[in-house]
Every structure is written in C-alpha cells, then in structure tokens.
Amino acid sequence: MMDDDLASRPCSWLSPQGPESDIVLSTRVRLARNLGDWKMPWRLTPQERSELYDLIAARLESAAPVPDASMERVDELSGLKRDVLVERHVISRELAQGEGARGVLFSRSEDSSVMALEEDHLRLQALRRGLQLESTWRAVDLLDDALEEVFDYAVSEEFGYLTACPTNVGTGLRVSVMTHLPTLVETGQIPKVKTAASRVGLVLRGFRGEGSKSQGDFFQISNQVTFGRSEEEIIRLVQSMTGKIVEWERGVRRLLLDQDRTVLENRVWRAWGTLQHARIMSSEEAMEQLSLIRLGINTKLLVHLTLGDLNELFLYIQPGHIRTLTGAGEDPRARDEMRARFIRQYLADRAR
Amino acid sequence: MESTSEIWSDSGAEFDATPENPIQEDSQFDLEDGAKMLCEHCGKNPASHKTTDIINHVKSVKHLCDACFVAEGLGLPFTKMNLVETKPTVSFQPVADIQIQIVQGGSREEQELEEALGPTCEICGLDLATFRKKGAIGCPHDFDVFVEEIRAVLLKLHGGREHRGKLPRAYQTRRARAHQIRQLETDLDRAVAEEKYEEAAKLRDRIRALQRDPDTHPVEDATRHDG
Question: What per-residue string of b and e applies to B117-154 under the rule 16 or more CB within 10 Å gives b?
C-alpha cells in the first residue's frame, strides 16, 4: 500500500549523480501494451472494466515483475494521494483523472511502474536519473519480457503492438528526456529547438508532457514516431538529438557568461533573495525562481546549495507535495503561504 | 541512422558531440605566434570549438566560436543569437486532424454515405464514423476491420508502412510454427501426388504433432526435418 511518508522522500530519479545531470534531470521510457482478448479501456463497460482490472492485478501480482512492488487501486485513493503520485511521475495525470477501476504497480524505489487501464490496458515505464537512454530502455524491455509470459498481448505482424491510439501503434514506445534549458528560453531559441526536433520525428513538450506548458524552463524531448522504426533506432535518435540540445544549452550559457556575467549573476541572486524572503509563493513562481537557482548552481555563480537539494525542492513545492508536507488545505492562497514558508525553512536548513 | 543525418545535411556537417566522444574542446586555440585563433566562420570571435566533419570519408576540421558552434550544431543557418525567432514547422499533426484530411476526399454526402455503408466491428461495436471522429481504436480486431483506414492514418502519422522492432517471443514461435506447418503441408501434397505414401504418413504425423502441441519448438523440429 502507498505509505504515508512517500511525499517526504526524495525520488531516486532526482539524484544529481546521473550523466549530464546539469541539464538532463531524468530519462523515462514507457511501453504501451494491450491484451488480445479485450476491448480497449475506453470501450469497456464499468462491469467489464472491473473484471479486467481484477484479472490484470492478479497476474501482475503473480508475475511480480518489479521487486517488492504492490498494486495500488488508483480509483480508491484520495485526490491528494493521486496528485503526489503524479508529481513523482509514478502515474500519469490521465490515470489520476480517469474513471472506473484502474491502478498501478510500483515499488518503494519508484524506478519502474506498470499502470493498469490507463489509455491502454498496460503502460510499463522505467525512470532513471540523468541521461541514461540505453539502460532505461533495457530495464523496461526486461519488464516487458516478464509480462509477456503472463499476458497474451495484442500484436500483429504488420502493425506490431496494437494500441488504443494510432500515435502509439508499432513499438508502443515513448522515450522522454527531461531537460532544463533556461538559457535557450532566455535567448528565444526554443522555437528553433522545436523545429529541429520535429524534422526528425521528435517533439519538445512541456514539463508535464503532452499538451502541457513549460514550467521552470523544463522541457521533455520525446519521440513522436512509434511505427516503422525499431526501439533501438528511436533510442539512438533521442540520444543524438538530446546530446545536441545539451551542447547547445551549454554553449549559450558560456556565451551569456562571457557577454555579461553580472546580468546573469544579478538574476540568480535576486531569485535567491526572493526565495529566502517571500511570504506568498505560487508553484509557477517557485518553479521560475528555482530554475534560476539551478542555472546559478550549474554555472557556479551560486554555491550555497547542492544540486541534489535543489532537485528535491522542485519536487516538494508541487501542489500535492506541499499540501501533504505542510498540512495545507485546498485553498490556493493558504497553500501559497505555506509554500513560501516551506521554502524559507528548507533553504535555512540546507544552505551552506 | 538515415533520419538523423538528414537534418544535419543542411550544414553538410556530421558530428557527434556525445560525452563519450567529445570532439569539441573547451579551451581556446592558440596560434603558433601566441595569438588567439579566430572563428573560421564569422571571423570575429575567438575560436573555442574544434569540430570534425566527415564527408565522403574525408575528414575536415573547423575551428568555431561558441555562437557559430551552437548554430551549426543544430544544422540551422548561422544567425545572430537572440535576434531571429523562427516559427516551428509542425511535421506531425494530431490524429484527429489527419483523419479529417484523409476523409476530405469527397463531398460531405459522399463521406456520410461511405460511413453509413462502412464496416462495424462485431466485437467492440465501433463503426467507421466513430473511428474517424474519435481517432481511437476500440479493440484489437479493429485493425482487421478498418485495415485500409488504419494503414493510411499510420502512414500519415509515422511515415511507416510496417512494424519494425520487438514482438513477443511466444508470438514469434507461433508464427514460425505456422510457417513450418504450411511448408510441411506443401511437402505432403507433393508426396501424395508422387504416391510416396510412407513419407506422406510421416509428414501428416508431424503436422498433427505441431498442431496439437503448442510447446513443440519449431526450430528443433526443422533441424530434425533437415537431418
């Protein structure tokens, strides 16, 4: 069962010891899978949905593809707990906001999970810190190998893995690399990055994935094409594009530092002052200010906080986490006050 | 990979600045007389990157400044940073839009008629009009029912014609077994035609064994057949 102290623990994928951690926060790889004998989730009656959920949950628990994992019935969780799971990337927002029987298999390490009855019958994912495409893909590939022993997947020779939406047909693979691109945003380069990505079938999405806005200068680089290209080809494509975007961001950082170091320093330190003294702080503003602190740490303009502590703070200031950690209610204004207080206290404790 | 090199072909450059294979250097390059080398592209800023292009197996080395390096890195025209805002060209569109485009072949009446006469899946009850409107698939059987429509959507969305990549091992085994049964049946027909009844009986037994036992490994069987 979902333990109560979940929201107070850092996520392993936020650790700054991963490759390219100055720019790449995390790597996520997911596979969409369906069972051959059942209608897609959106066509199921509530009765069928409930039956299928029980079948999936039983087989997932018997196959035990994730060590020490257990099944969580998402439709029986409170809205607050669902938010915490979304913010920790254990489940998608679609699963949190869906209807009817649905759930997730995950373990305390939170680095792998299997969602049941989201858009597809099964969504398998692996999540790792930094840029680790190969190993994250291998992890989810192994998870898939274990599950194909207990589920008869819907596949065809021509179409590969059959999914509810044509955008996932074929490999069912979605690779997302979460990158922090503050100086590409600052210098208006993001449209160019989007153009370059779209030319090869990749897309730059906002913080929360599909259709979401960027927050705190975080962008997900992910593949659009799932059909007609193998998993390895898709992984290599994302790897190559991410490498180029990382170099681009680093180049612009150096350029800005060379051109006028004081301008950048001024912005970083103003953000530091705001976070240390503000009394009301929305999550959007917090993301913006923390993004500047992150840039300051990575350009060594600010050495008062470790990157690890900062990454954790990005998680704790999310609405579900702040409510859980401070006991704030649903009133946004009260929550913004609690957030400001939490950040002040956190910086007082962790700043060197 | 073909698709990656495509975009970079704008600049004619092909380089891979991965962390394992850093080909640019952070320090500035000194000329023999102690002066700083200038960027070979803009000729203004000091060169701080060395890029290696390999075109038709010929290696050429260029020294670039930060701005030109990052511009070339994404295969985009050299522009002054901060000034040029390009609008993203969207090469991939939402499914619903694509289905609308595909549908826009004939008049509205023709479409309605086509949809009214179109197939309905007997398993999930999805009909052509709903499939087009929702852009979603109702059950695995729909891939047979709406096969032409799905092929068109997938080609438009992914530019792909057939799946490449992983398939479940059990599925591959079943597929190999079905293939082997088809081959044995051809052999059987020939044996009967040639009145080789003893051989025909053996072939029939093997076909039955393959059909009966889902765990018979087709590869081992094929070896026995060859031996």
Answer: ebeebebbebbbbbbbebbbbbbbbbbebbeebbbebb
Q: What is the DSSP letter of A132?
A: -
Q: Is some CB atom of chain A closer than 8 A to the CB atom of B136?
A: yes
- The pTM for the full model equals 0.77
CB atoms within 10 A of CB A242: 23
Lookup result for tokens 């590869």? B219
Rg, chain A, Cα only: 21
Distance CA A232, CA B78 (A): 32
Find the helix or strand (DSSP H, E) in which A116 lies: strand A112-116
DSSP state of A314: H
pLDDT digits (tens, 9 = 90+) for A314-342: 999 999 999 999 998 889 999 999 999 99
Let me know: does B29 contact B64? Beta carbons within 8 Å.
Answer: no
Contacts of B66 in chain A (CB under 8 A): 251-252, 254-255, 258
Q: Which residues pair with A343 in a beta bridge?
A: none
* Token code pair at residue A65: 């593809």
- Interface confidence (ipTM) of the complex: 0.90
Rounded Cα gap, residues B133 and A288, in angstroms = 39
Under 8 Å between Cβ of A154 and A220: no
Could you give the C-alpha distances from A152 to A58, A149, B99, in angstroms and in order?
15, 8, 30
Best of B157, B171, B175 to disrupt the A interface (most A CBs within 10 Å) is B157
